[in-house]
Specification:
The protein is an alpha+beta fold. Helix content is 25%, strand content 28%. The protein has helices at residues 12-31, 84-91, 98-103, 107-113, 211-218, 228-238, 251-254, 261-264, 266-278, 298-308, 336-346, 368-378, 385-393, 405-408, 417-436, and strands at residues 40-41, 55-65, 75-79, 114-122, 130-138, 144-150, 156-159, 169-176, 183-192, 221-223, 243-249, 286-292, 319-323, 353-358, 382-384, 460-462, 471-474, 487-488, 497-498, 504-505, 515-530, 539-543, 546-551, 560-581, 591-598. Strands 16, 17, 20, 21, 22, 23, 24 and 25 form an eight-stranded antiparallel beta sheet that branches. Strands 10-15-14-13-11-12 form a six-stranded mixed beta sheet, sandwiched between helices. Helix 9 packs parallel to helix 15 (417-436).
Length: 599
């Protein structure tokens, strides 16, 4: 089959001539059953988009920056492959209809659904009069639709009707200009064919403190639980005694995407509300501890609780909010570590109150069904952000929508400042309702059999700093200390704290001598560093001479802490652990951050 190509030049006469030539070629191709597969197509752009067409955004006033790389023009690419386009439709477009979301993931559906693409670019500078936008298709020919967009906020449109049969899945959007470092605000919307409709999403500011808003917040109270401990803490605060409110969880608790992260995160906002509601005077008697670490489940949280919340025994929190409802998909114990963490907190001598908080992702998912079993079992107070916001996400403003997904989520995982405010208001509502109710006569019963498991409730951290009293270790070639580790904003600090700095890293110049450890324990969790660097490689993990795992720190491809269980048994006995680089990765690094062990 003969393949014909054509090119578009930035000249009006040439463009007209080439379009005419293209039409002739297409006619010839039809007559000879030849399929034209253009690689670069510049579609007609209408001055005014069809305002009557239903549409949704996949970018909304998103800031892009033109970066120079590989001797190319300054540009930024937006990846639309895999679930990225669907997630953008959910988040930015607030699309909830599964029929439409499913169509975005396949070629035929996309062609059937999308009529055209509208693009608005704004730059507050007359130096940048236009930006080139290229929409890359994911097909054999590598089709690219190209459009020059003004930067004054005028909308330009890619019309796909003439190219849809050749333009399969959207692969990426590429924004390109002459000026490195240029920043622009970009909005991109998909206009739909007439048979498809999506609700119009309001861009009005969230109406906080209205009756409708308060009704939404009330829905978050999944359970008041046994209020004895929480009411006693409230009374303690009102009497002027020192009270510490602590938070442990993943990146949402860390405050990811909140601006600024240390004071606009839900944790700090909740602390401020508690101070205002119950603190003495200016609230100097209320203290704050935050231990959120991005990308980590309760499997790691249970190991670091003594370090990050109790501060090695120097802090006794009175209230602990536990937030792992969107992180624990990676908990290989499927709830045992979560219940163990709750019991570890509840068992403290000062009888702290535990509140379970269930956050939510943009796809309306969390692990509330699994983890709320723990709360019901011990009659703990529980707050569900999912219950508060998800149902109203599906409504228009006229139907009762309070906040859209675009307003609540900064990305597919993390809340905006408004989202963090809602989370804090939900927790504050629990506090206010607890204040109103009569105190429970009996305390929480934690002596009952666990509902999922409690094997890790007494776990402790072992690292390079404190191992001498618990284990016999030969470092082998793991003699270096890795300083390029995950950094986290703890407590109310804007600066970051290194996670597991007392570690062992394999030295590439020291051969492949095994790290060995002899330890008496019932269970052992290895904590190692995930990395995005190709300088890191796989390690083989042996327990009592048996190969247990080969772990690859590059699977997730960003620097953070990873916990994995090496063994879990009923009796405490001696085990011999050996860690060595995989045979084909001897010249690479691997970092052992530490271990969690139980006796």
């Amino acid at each position: 089959m003969r393949r014909t190509a054509f090119f578009v030049y930035q000249s009006g006469n040439l463009i007209f001539a080439i379009r005419s030539f293209k039409e002739k070629l297409e006619k010839m191709a039809d007559e000879k059953s030849v399929t034209l597969r253009p690689r670069n197509v510049k579609p007609e752009a209408s001055g005014e988009p069809d305002k009557t067409r239903s549409h949704f955004f996949i970018m909304f006033e998103e800031v892009i920056e033109m970066i120079t790389s590989n001797d190319e023009k300054p540009s930024q690419e937006i990846d639309l492959q895999g679930e990225n386009l669907v997630n953008r439709a959910r988040l930015t477009g607030c699309v909830t209809q599964e029929e439409i979301l499913n169509q975005l993931g396949n070629c035929k559906g996309l062609q059937k659904l999308v009529h055209s693409i509208g693009i608005v670019i704004k730059i507050d500078s007359e130096s940048y009069d236009h930006i080139n936008v290229m929409l890359h298709g994911k097909n054999a020919s590598g089709t690219v639709l190209s459009l020059s967009c003004p930067t004054d906020g005028t909308e330009k449109v890619f019309h796909l009707d003439d190219h849809g049969s050749q333009f399969n899945l959207f692969k990426k959007l590429k924004f390109e200009c002459k000026h490195p470092g240029a920043k622009a605000s970009v909005s991109v919307k998909l206009y739909l064919h007439e048979e498809y409709k999506v609700p119009v999403i309001s861009n009005e500011a969230v109406a906080f403190n209205t009756e409708e808003y308060k009704a939404m917040i009330k829905k978050s109270l999944l359970s008041k639980g046994n209020n004895k401990r929480l009411k006693e803490v409230i009374e303690k605060a009102e009497n002027g005694e020192d009270v510490t409110i602590a938070f442990i969880g993943g990146s949402i608790t860390q405050g990811a995407v909140a601006e600024p992260i240390h004071t606009n995160c839900y944790a700090y906002q909740t602390y401020k509300r508690f101070k205002q509601m119950f603190g003495k005077g200016e609230g100097e008697n209320i203290h704050f501890v935050k231990g959120g670490v991005g990308g980590t489940p309760s499997e790691l949280g249970v190991v670091r609780y003594h370090r990050d919340i109790l501060k090695e025994g120097t802090v006794e929190p009175d209230i602990v909010i536990v937030e792992f409802a969107v992180n624990d998909a990676d908990d290989e114990t499927e709830g045992v570590c979560y219940e163990s963490l709750c019991l570890q907190i509840l068992s403290a001598n000062n009888n702290p109150a535990v509140v379970l908080l269930f956050s939510v992702f943009v796809n309306d998912w969390n692990l509330q069904e699994r983890l709320s079993r723990v709360g019901k079992h011990y009659d703990l107070p529980m707050v569900s952000i999912k219950d508060a916001v998800v149902d109203q996400f599906r409504l228009t403003r006229d139907e009762g929508n309070i906040i859209s997904k675009r307003q609540f989520f900064a990305d597919i995982y993390h809340p905006t400042n408004d989202g963090h405010t809602i989370m804090a208001d939900c927790l504050a509502y629990l506090f206010s309702e607890t204040k109103k109710t009569q105190i429970n006569k009996d305390d929480i019963n934690i002596s009952v059999d666990p509902v999922i498991g409690d094997a890790f409730k007494n776990i402790r951290l072992l690292d390079r700093k404190n191992y001498l009293s618990m284990a016999m270790i030969d470092m082998g070639s793991f003699i270096e200390t890795d300083e390029d580790i995950q950094m986290v904003e703890m407590d109310d600090n804007l600066f970051s704290t290194p996670q597991f700095p007392n570690n062992w890293m394999h030295a590439t110049t020291s051969g492949n001598n095994s790290f060995t450890m002899k330890i008496n324990s019932k269970s052992l969790i290895l904590i190692y560093k995930d990395s995005g660097s190709d300088a890191f490689g796989k390690a083989d993990i042996f327990v009592d001479g048996q190969l247990m795992k080969c772990v690859d720190p590059r699977e997730i491809n960003w620097t953070h802490c990873h916990a994995v269980i090496l063994y879990q048994e009923e009796e405490c006995k001696e085990h011999f652990v050996e860690i060595k680089m995989a045979s084909d990765d001897v010249d690479k690094h691997f970092t052992i951050l530490g271990f969690g062990y139980t006796l």
